[in-house]
Write a structure and sequence with these properties.
By secondary structure, the chain is of the alpha/beta class. The protein is built from 13 helices and 18 strands. It has two domains: 143 residues, NAD(P)-binding Rossmann-like Domain (Rossmann fold), CATH 3.40.50.720; 294 residues, Dihydrodipicolinate Reductase, domain 2 (2-Layer Sandwich). It binds NADP nicotinamide-adenine-dinucleotide phosphate (NAP).
């Protein structure tokens, strides 16, 4: 086998230091990388090989998990690192890149190459074309592209065409790190390895579904990127809709890349297209405002002072197929929320009539809930009504819970470890296929167009540290207690406003 090289575009950036280098180090430590491997970093920042190794060593000491840190192994890993200063947007950089690869590998035509595009998305279209111009899209090469793949349907299609003209589809790995999470994959095991759920996993027994992925941080130093993207492009079009697909998909005939990804795409094709009523009334966007010592979004570095970019979005959508017709899926994401959590809540229908009472005299039972917690405190909780011991017949809803920690030595390493290894082994199952990207954009494009052409579409302010605009609660009207918030809601109405 030829010398394996992972070439990172954007090697001086945040993703490389926080995720890619630690993931590569973990693979190296566990002897999961090819024996003969190198990493070649590239960016405009000037480093020699030695300076880049020093820089990488410092970052590894910070970002590798404490239990994995080992100075001797850090140094053995860093010897494999190389660097070339180049501007990836310029074609004239690439002959130098090819020469550097030849010198790193000692081969006249290096072929076992993995290009990782961790640059601003504006460069995702030009880098493959420049690689092709100098013949670096060799038959053995692969490319990993970070999200977002396109910023709307038209740009995603154009990007798809560019990649198709450079690499075969099976050599293109569009990464979505959510799918690399054990807990996301476990949705499949839970649904398709346990026969008891299948009979109730449909519109006859499920009332509605919530998918929440929120963070208790702002945008940190990503103002420039985030202000042009917003929550819909950053989270909804990729991560949230993936979770909807994992919840709603049919079992694949075989668990392999084609069959699995075919079923994902079918869910996207079944999404009920958004109409005027949906655009006006079933999508709530918000932006965090200053509160509790936290800056407002518009005060963040790199954000326009009059920005109307959404940092929160909640919406209701439907899947038009036999299994899900009529079952609303409520999805929600936001920055500066009270906590960081990603979870799916399946709300089952109530029993035909309520024959009992709860502890406070309310009628009972309520609908069961199944909570699939993707992060943190990974696990699964089933909420069921139980009789409170003692006289009378009062009921209480209790949780039957499974936590991943009960599985013992579960490997819940960062998803980049898993996904980079899959890519090296050529397994595309957990990467997004081009038709899925396009189908997802096709569904969300009307929202972007609506916001672009209808500037008066409301953007609601919400104080940093709260669960988003109160208008998002209206979406859930008639749905029991509303959104399932894992901690107490802050309800100071005076702090809410329309921006
Ligand atoms: N950070 C994360 O946790 C994360 C998570 C998921 C996805 N992503 C995606 O991964 C990509 C990289 O993210 P990041 O957070 O690492 O970004 P970043 O810190 O801004 O780094 C971007 C890299 O690209 C280079 N770069 C910046 N502007 C450039 C330009 N105009 N021309 C050429 N090179 C330029 C920078 O190096 P030089 O300035 O030295 O050239 C830097 O190495 C983004 O597309 C992002 O959406 C990031």
């Amino acid at each position: 086998m030829n010398h394996f090289v992972m070439i990172i575009f954007g090697a001086s950036g945040d993703l490389t230091k926080r995720k890619l280098m630690p993931a590569l180090f973990t693979l190296f430590s566990n002897k999961r990388l090819p024996e003969d491997f190198s990493v070649l970093g590239t960016a405009r920042t000037k480093y020699s090989d030695a300076e880049f190794r020093d820089y990488a060593l410092k970052q590894l000491r910070i970002f590798v998990k404490p239990e994995e840190r080992n100075e001797e192994r850090f140094r053995a890993f860093c010897i494999r690192l190389h660097y070339i200063t180049l501007d990836p947007s310029r074609e004239e950089s690439y002959p130098r890149l090819r020469d550097k690869l030849e010198s790193v590998t000692g081969e006249t035509r290096p072929d076992n190459l993995l290009f990782y595009l961790a640059t601003p998305p504006a460069l995702y279209g030009v880098i493959p074309l420049h690689l092709k111009a100098v013949g670096l899209n060799t038959p053995g090469s692969r490319v990993i592209v970070e999200k977002p793949f396109g910023s709307d349907l038209a740009s995603a299609k154009a990007l798809g065409e560019t990649y198709k003209s450079v690499f075969d589809e099976q050599r293109i790995f569009r990464i979505d790190h959510f799918l690399g999470k054990e807990t996301a994959q476990n949705i499949l095991a839970f649904r398709f390895a346990n026969g008891i759920f299948e009979p109730v996993w449909n519109r006859n027994y499920i009332d509605y579904v919530e998918v929440t992925a929120v963070e208790n941080m702002g945008i940190e130093n990503r103002g420039g990127f985030y202000d042009a993207a917003g929550a819909l492009r950053d989270m909804v079009q990729n991560h949230l809709i993936q979770l909807v697909a994992l919840t709603a998909m049919e079992p694949p005939v075989l668990f392999d890349a084609d069959n699995f990804r075919n079923e994902i795409v079918k869910v996207y094709h079944s999404l009920k297209p958004l109409d005027e009523e949906d655009l006006h009334n079933h999508i709530i966007r918000g932006q965090y405002t200053a509160s509790g010592g936290e800056k407002g979004y518009r005060e963040e570095k790199g954000v326009r002072p009059d920005s109307r970019t959404e940092t929160f979005i909640a919406m209701k959508l439907f899947i038009n197929n036999w299994r899900w017709s009529g079952v609303p899926f409520y999805i929600r994401t936001g920055k500066q929320m009270p906590t960081k959590v990603t979870e799916i809540v399946i709300h089952f229908k109530e029993t035909p009539y309520r024959m009992f009472r709860g502890e406070s005299g309310e009628s009972y039972p309520r609908g069961n809930q199944l909570i699939i917690r993707i992060q943190p405190d990974e696990g699964i909780v089933l909420k069921i009504g139980m009789k409170v011991p003692g006289t009378g017949f009062k009921l209480k809803q209790m949780s039957m819970d499974f936590s991943y920690s009960q599985l013992g030595n579960l490997d819940i390493r960062d998803s980049y470890v898993r996904l980079i290894e899959d890519c090296i082994q050529g397994d595309p199952t957990l990467f997004t296929r081009n038709d899925a990207i396009e189908a997802s954009w096709r569904f969300f494009d009307p929202v972007l167009n609506f916001w672009k052409t209808c500037p008066e579409a409301p953007l609601y302010g919400y104080p940093a540290g709260t669960w988003g605009p109160k208008e998002s609660d209206i979406l859930m009207k008639g749905r029991g207690a509303g959104w399932t918030n894992p901690c107490k809601n802050l309800t100071n109405n005076d702090l809410y406003c329309e921006l």
